[in-house]
Give the backbone structure.
Amino acid sequence: MASLPQPQSGQFAIHYFATASQYTSKNTERLPAPLPLSRLFPLLEELYPGIKEKVLCSCGISLEGNYVDVDVDADVIIQAGDEIAVIPPVSSG
């Protein structure tokens, strides 16, 4: 896996997996920071119309490797250099 370029000042990395990656046509991108966690879904909806209903409503979100709840943890601020992951549900057979 290729490493990402070093983050630029004022940006965080967001990693998309499975359906989130398919919807955005990206594995990773950088977005402006700082950003309140409560603004993450609205920002993604602006960039990718329909993503909230079709993808994000069933995904887990991690910030720096820890799962967060965008409603409960709304006062958390995503800082420059942070990493967010959008993780769709995993099924087992």
Summary: Residues 17 and 87 are 6 Å apart (CA to CA). The chain has a mean pLDDT of 90. The longest helix spans residues 40-47. Helices lie at 19-24, 40-47, 51-54.
